[in-house]
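Milestone M4 deliverable, item 7.
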Amino acid sequence: MKIAIAQINPKAGDLQGNSAKIIEFTRRAGQAGAELAVFPECALTGYPAWDLWEDRSFIEANLKTLDAVAAKTGKTAALFGYVDFNREAAGKRLLNCAALAHEGRITARRAKTLLPTYDVFDEARYFESAAENLPVEFNGRRLGVTICEDVWNEGLPRKFYRKDPVNSLVKAGLDAVINLSASPFFEGKAELRRRLIGAHAKKSGVPFIYCNQTGGNDDLVFDGGSFAVDAHGALLARAKPFAEELLPVDTAAASLARDSQALPDEELFLALTTGIRDYLSKCGIKKAVLGLSGGVDSAVVCALAARAIGGGNVTGVSLPSQYTSPESRRDAAELARKLGVKFHEIPITPVFGEYTKALATVFAGRKPDATEENIQARIRGGILMALSNKSGALLLSTGNKSEIAVGYCTLYGDMCGGLAPLADVVKTRVYALARYINERFGGPIPEYTLTRPPSAELRPGQTDQDELPPYDILDSIVKAYVEEGKTHKEIAALGIEAALVLKILDKIDCSEFKRKQAAIGIKVTPKAFGGGRRMPVARGNHRTEKP
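Output delivered:
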């Protein structure tokens, strides 16, 4: 069977734009000789649309658009995701559905069975599970139509669900299984999907077509990476990551001899640039501004932004104080020049002087501390926000996951911004990403930026390690606790001092109030701060060695 996988980048709520993509890619699929074009989950409404799905007028509009798309189909059919009303008397109001449109009408509808409620997913809030899922008859073939999570119950350490939609369909007799997905990216997930679908194919003995969404939507990035495997699980075709593509597949063709994928640093770079590009473009914003400290975090964010939207649309601002080293000022200017971004230097020393004068009386008799350091950060944040307001450019926050985890950041200061590209990237990965950028794009990040001891430069001689352990140790703790859910005892068993583990975990817990007010971050790990990790701000400490 000749199928075209339509790996598209839909926009949440954009029924007109999304339907136009479905119509256009179906037309192109027909030109390529395909009988069927397959699209992602919720391709019509965009995924996730969150509480837009609770707006009845939006659901009604999506159904009218569904009919309009179907009316434009001809010999080549289109299988795509949309949202329908649940017409049963009981259960949630909506169904997460797939429609088969062929020769001007809808010929089949199927609903999603398994509704994820973990991490960033909350589908049981909106949808009712399908009562049954039967094969779809199409051009003399029997197709098993599944939607995203419906296939996530095979080849894993633990089965998540009691139902097995794929197994039920295969028992009914199939020629192929098709999966419409909107599966968000995290590092390593592409290979996990590949193993999962391969295990299904080997077990069932039928080919599998996996179509995934691509592009960014708010904090989520979808890598695409759509593919097809034969009845033995061998790869037939794979789409490019992080790009729209129409991928023709012949289920009777020979499998590929080689299966190449992006390397980890390249994959992370593509994810972050996609997230920045689509967040700005889908919000109707064309420019970005950020502070350039001369440090590695701001250098990487600037390089990512320049690649995502073009250097001419990015403005970097150096905001030196009396504590800023000449090397930091030099590196900020050099970075901007090499990346081709606009550059300004605005010293904050005079403004800081006015603050200290204004507060001299009420602060009398008290030694300088973190208060004065935070004032500097907030002056910088205020200036950057003013530039953002005046120019219409989005302010990019430059903090990384390691700092955000332990609260080594200032509310209304360096945390200011509309998007935090590195919020889910620990410091050691930031350095790896910086080296990749230099190797790949001609070395825009100055070498001293990569070799100097990291410092916020808010007091004389300050370094990050005055208050934090070395980043390799800190990152190990953050990864184990936040991403892997390990206990303090399990983390200490990795060879890290128990007292340090408890100290860092307490910092992570106590910094939740800051993260609740932070800019949106781009999720690139299995567990990011944000909607997929819901922790109370006011809480007790349960970690104690006492009974």
